[in-house]
Design brief:
β4, α4 and β5 form a beta-alpha-beta unit. The model has no long low-confidence stretch (mean pLDDT about 90). The longest helix is centred in the middle third of the chain and has 31 residues. α3 runs parallel beside α4 and α4 crosses α5. The protein folds into two domains: about 190 residues, Alanine racemase (TIM Barrel), CATH 3.20.20.10; about 100 residues, Beta Barrel (Lyase, Ornithine Decarboxylase, Chain A, domain 1). With about 375 residues, the protein is of the alpha/beta class. The protein is built from nine helices and 19 strands. Strands 1, 12, 13, 14, 15, 16, 17, 18 and 19 form a nine-stranded mixed beta sheet that branches. An eight-stranded parallel β-barrel has the order 2-3-4-5-6-9-10-11, surrounded by four helices. The protein has a two-stranded antiparallel sheet with strand order 7-8.
Length: about 375
């Protein structure tokens, strides 16, 4: 097997353009008449966000993760933006309130406290906010919370309380709701060697999905019955796309990881995208017989600690990380029974999508073994948001 990428003798972040474009087309085909919003935390490159937005009309807008990032996107001519999480960044929120009307930057809230804070801030700067209400989409089983800890709002009465507070404010405009079903979108259910766990997760997902659909529809109906118009009903993620787009009340689905298809997304039963994002490390020493040491490599994914958050070594075939050191901050030793040389490159995939972009200034786009285009990451643009 030949090395599939052109590399140098320094660590590099590499994008297989054919795989990336294939994934983009596959995601667009699954839209089912809905719009797809791009999750910036999984892309972390302004140039690649534009690349996706320009590829198909089904892609509309970006979901970012901080107010600072929202302003960065707005200043770079992306004007349909959801901030996916509540924020207390008053400096940036003040600026967002002042560009109301020039751009659609939707601020996320899930409490009356958030409403009051935004109203006071908007009054202080003579501005306004577009507001979305975040809904909890987790599923409760006996002794098990299946989902992530996000919004405290789950019942219609709770959502209405916040919506009425928005209505009573002078400077906030209710625009709709968001609900992220993380237990469907972000939990692998087809991991090799874990058949019992897979079966359990598949069962929990199967039970959860109709509950999620009913809850979302119930809340939208309740809001509409009280005179609220949900222009945006956002849901989903890469792992739930095919299910979420089928919900009647959904207007758009957010997708991010599917474009790069990192290692964690190898383990889903219902879909498979092509791995597109890789990183290469140069071998800088031979530490012993069959032991080669690479420069850098400690790009461990966030979340609960486990071996599944380590990078996956894919080239050369048969090479493996050492158990005691794993992927290290400044060096990564590997074990390989074949022959390698100082200066050769070793190829990895990151466990999650966008986080790896924080470690590189550029993403080197390649096609058919040739460099075609380089894309700046957020880091390459000189910005860092989290």
């Amino acid at each position: 097997m030949e090395h599939p990428f052109v590399t140098t003798k320094t660590p590099e972040l590499l994008l297989d353009l054919d795989a990336f474009e294939h994934n983009t087309k596959m995601i667009a085909k699954q839209a089912f008449g809905k719009k797809i919003r791009i999750a910036s935390k999984s892309i972390r490159s302004l140039e690649l966000l534009r690349y996706i937005l320009d590829s198909d009309d089904v892609f509309q807008g970006v979901m970012c993760y901080t107010a600072e990032e929202a302003l960065f996107l707005y200043e770079n001519n992306i004007t349909d933006i959801i901030i996916g999480y509540p924020t207390t960044d008053q400096l940036r929120l003040s600026k967002i309130a002042q560009v109301h009307g020039e751009a659609k930057i939707f601020v996320m809230i899930d409490s009356i406290h958030h409403v009051n804070e935004l109203e006071d801030l908007a009054k202080a700067v003579n501005g306004r906010f577009y507001v979305l209400v975040d809904i909890d989409m987790s599923t409760q089983f006996p002794a098990l919370h299946f989902g992530v800890r996000r919004s405290p709002l789950q019942q219609c009465e709770e959502v209405l309380g916040v919506a009425f507070a928005i209505r009573q404010s002078q400077n906030l405009q209710f625009c709709g709701i968001m609900g992220y079903e993380a237990q469907i979108a972000g939990v692998p259910d087809f991991v090799r060697g874990k058949s019992l766990t897979n079966k359990l997760i598949q069962t929990l997902k199967k039970v959860s999905m109709p509950q999620i659909e009913k809850r979302r529809k119930r809340i939208v109906t309740c809001l509409e019955d009280h005179g609220f118009i949900c222009r945006i009903v956002n849901g989903g993620g890469t792992g739930s796309l095919s299910h979420t787009v089928c919900e009647e009340v959904i207007t758009e689905v957010t997708v991010g990881s599917g474009f790069y298809a990192p290692v964690l997304f190898d383990h889903y039963r219902d879909f498979q995208y092509n791995p597109a994002l890789f990183f290469s490390l140069p071998i800088v020493r031979q530490a012993g017989k069959h032991l080669y040491t690479c420069l850098g490599g400690g790009y461990i994914a966030s979340g609960s600690v486990g071996v599944d958050k380590q990078p996956l070594l894919i080239y050369p075939p048969g090479a493996s990380l050492t158990k005691l050191e794993g992927a290290g901050e400044v060096q990564t030793p590997i074990h390989y029974l074949g022959t390698l040389h100082i200066g050769d490159s070793v190829l990895f995939r990151a466990a999650k999508a966008g986080e790896i972009c924080e470690r590189f200034d550029n993403i080197i786009g390649q096609r058919n073994g040739e460099v075609e285009q380089s894309f700046l990451t957020y880091r390459g643009e000189g910005v860092c948001f989290l």
